[in-house]
Amino acid sequence: MGLLVVFLASTITYGFKTGHLPVRPFDSDRWKRVERVDDHARIRMIEHLLWSGKLDGLSRGELVALLGPPSDTAYFREHDYVYRLGDERSLFSIDSEWLVLDVDASGRVSRYEVVRD
User: Are 58 and 66 in contact (CB under 8 A)?
Assistant: First the structure.
């Protein structure tokens, strides 16, 4: 019983600390309005965006229309598009999470994933 209480307390603390409860529906306008490092809107929406399949096969123009211009960063230069999501989803956030996307020769999104720096 004691372990269950500790587990539930840590899960609730994690959720409130990181702001990741609940997963929010993807909202393109809200995604594009993120300006501050401590704005957790993207990290809250990323699961819904990935599950929705909205990124599959988008052209470069459609991608930028949906997500806005990519983040200005020196990280992950091997990818075509990089978007900062926010602090990593963990009890002790040390790194950041990023959405990285690659396009194929025809200019369509061919691969995407969430990575940490």
Answer: yes
Contact 39, 24 (CB under 8 A): no
What does the pLDDT read at residue 22?
65
10: tokens are 């840590």
Give the containing element (helix H, strand E) for 84: strand 81-87
Q: What SS3 class is residue 113?
A: strand
Q: Could you tell me the CA-to-CA distances from 33 to 11, 25, 29, 30, 76 in Å, in that order? A: 29, 15, 6, 5, 22
Cα-based angle 19, 76, 103 (whole degrees, multiple of 5): 100
What are the structural domain ranges in the chain? 2-116
pTM above the 0.70 mark?
yes
Provide the total of helices (H) and of strands (E) in the chain, helices listed first. 4, 3
- Distance, in Å, from the CA atom of 98 to the CA atom of 73, rounded to the nearest integer, reads 11
Mean pLDDT by 10 residues, the chain (117 residues): 52 49 86 82 93 97 97 90 86 83 98 93
